[in-house]
């Protein structure tokens, strides 16, 4: 396979982006008390943003997957990285519970979906052998999210408050995910002429 060593760069980029994206979304429980204390919003209302996020992820995955087939994975994951960073920054400044629910729930959930399915499809296209290992490694990166992003969020919240902490996570997402998404290339197998 052409560029066979580069396929591991794709795996690393997918795992890293998945860790940040899933981690940003799944770190909301760490923010709950701080948000409720600062704003007076109910913890149930704040938690509803996570439920909306899962619903948005489910529906957005279909759209992002279809778009990835048409315009390529790189464009989709770059868009997802930008959307995730922007939506986290906007959520950190949400003036009301409804605004927070819509921004964090719908936008963060949709942005997270731009990474998961498109990167899994991209990775499988790069591998004739070791395909299961490659997909497992990308999944492992995503699985590391709660063990990395949640402690980071907790540490940030303890010293900076929830709004600044969420803004810092938005900056981290931009600083890591945008460059990582630019490493994504179309699988050589997809460029080959049909047999």
UniProtKB/TrEMBL annotation:
Residues 7-195 form the Major facilitator superfamily (MFS) profile domain. SUPFAM superfamilies: MFS general substrate transporter. Signal peptide: none annotated. Keywords: Membrane, Transmembrane, Transmembrane helix. The chain crosses the membrane at residues 6-32, 44-65, 71-91, 103-127, 133-157, 164-184. It comes from the Bacteria. GO terms for molecular function: transmembrane transporter activity. Pfam families: MFS_1 (PF07690). This is MFS transporter. It comes from Burkholderia territorii.
């Amino acid at each position: 396979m052409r560029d066979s060593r580069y396929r591991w760069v794709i795996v690393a980029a997918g795992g890293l982006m998945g860790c940040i994206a899933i981690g940003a979304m799944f770190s909301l429980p760490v923010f709950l008390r701080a948000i409720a204390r600062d704003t007076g919003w109910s913890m149930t209302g704040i938690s509803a943003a996570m439920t909306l996020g899962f619903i948005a992820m489910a529906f957005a995955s279909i759209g992002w997957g279809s778009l990835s087939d048409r315009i390529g994975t790189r464009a989709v994951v770059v868009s997802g990285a930008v959307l995730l960073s922007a939506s986290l920054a906007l959520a950190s400044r949400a003036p009301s519970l409804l605004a927070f629910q819509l921004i964090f729930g719908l936008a963060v959930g949709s942005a997270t979906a731009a990474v998961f399915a498109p990167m899994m499809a991209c990775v499988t296209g790069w591998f004739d052998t070791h395909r299961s290992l490659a997909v497992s490694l990308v999944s492992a990166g995503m699985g590391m999210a709660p063990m990395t992003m949640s402690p980071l969020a907790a540490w940030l919240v303890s010293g900076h408050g929830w709004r600044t902490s969420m803004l810092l996570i938005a900056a981290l997402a931009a600083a890591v995910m945008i460059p990582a998404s630019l490493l994504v290339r179309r699988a050589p197998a997809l460029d080959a002429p049909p047999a």
